[in-house]
Amino acid sequence: MKSSTKSREMGLRSAVDMTQSTSSSHWREQGNGIYVTARDNLCPSVRKERLRQAASCYYKAFNFSVNEDEKVSAAKNLAMVSWKTAKVDEQCMERMSLMVHQYKEAFKHFSFGFHHSETVKADSWRDGLLASAKGCWEELRCGRVSELSMENRAMTYHDLVQHIQIPELQAECYIELANCHFHFGITAIQNKDFKRGLYEMRDCYMPINEAKRCQGEKINIQAEIRILEEDVFMHQCMAEAMQAISIGDDLYEKLIKDEESLNMDMAYEVIDWFKQAVIRTREVTEVEIEAVALSRLGRLYDQVLKIKYKAKEYLMRSMQLAHSMHPRTFNSEGWFKDCAEILERYQKETVAAEEEKWNKEREEIVKGLEKEMKGIEKADEKDSQEFLRYVYRVFPPKNKEHKLEGGLKKKGFHVEHDKLKKILQKAVVHYHPDKVDTEKHGKVWKVLSEEITKRLTRRYERMK
Predict the structure, then answer these.
(1) Is the pLDDT of residue 16 over 80?
(2) I want to staple 148 with a disulfide (CB 3.0 to 4.6 A). Which of 87, 153, 337, 423 is the partner?
(3) Bias regions of kind Basic and acidic residues — which residues (predicted)?
């Protein structure tokens, strides 16, 4: 009796399953019949109504499914009808929220079909589902969503990625989300809103790490993630450096304008900010910003701390970096002008100090050359040919190759005006003090060369 009852129950259950299975196939076939009538040439309202009716049939097919095979088939149908409905809503900007909802539904059903079909569907069926899911993603990414503001686009991707459970597409959605934060951050940095820019750059890391987790072994996605991560890090370092320079500039202005006496604590705080900028830029080899920070340090050591050697060290390094970016020029940039002006002043001061020192040494040397100076002065009273003969005979050039032309050595020999002019020109080169090696030939020879060159130059100028 018990065995008979159990057999009847199993028979009833089998009959119910068969009925449900038949119902699932029936509703799927009915939905397919409506789906194909939702052609693109129909008006949007009629197309959307037919797609709604088809979706209703597919939902019934999904609910009446008795096995995984039927469920994943119905899920794929639901994904396709949701995708097509989203494309209808995409034609009207007022329906953006409805469009996004339909795309979420499509990816939810694509994801269900992908994960539950592994043991019940052939590889060709799964490949077709994956290809459709990728096509749906591309249409979403390149469609109206791309026209949204960066902030709204980020919100859309953040909402959407929760419904995508296909790893490859999930990784791509996370990459798009990171790109939104990245470009938003760049815009903020360009507008000197460094706080917001850094906030957005840091917001890139979560989706980047999630994309790494999802992507599996997709080489193209790995490369995209790597490039994006490097760009984010570079711009984060740049933003931190630019922010440090901005803070340092504000403190510098306060230091030189608002303080009645030098506040050393504030001065070293300014130095710390500029040095921090240098460190951050060196991590990503951002040469221009490093040059700016170094110029700022040089200016502070020059104008506030009055430590010339330290200022010159920073300014020279800044100038070297600027020149390394040739053919770019920075002549109109304030930091470059400051750098060039201070270094030019230092150069003039060095030249003036060296000249003053040399003039004092020269005075002492001239005192010991009284006889030689009188001889040069006496020879200078004669014509140019006689003067040339005298200096080459009494004070021959140290370079053995520098000689007076043969004909002019003879007393009473005269040369033409133009030729004499050329001889004087060569003589200036032979005796020019800038060519004198003082370590080798001594400072006395340098003084004599200066006196001779001065007189040769004067004669040459008179012959022009």
Answers:
(1) no
(2) 153
(3) 1-11
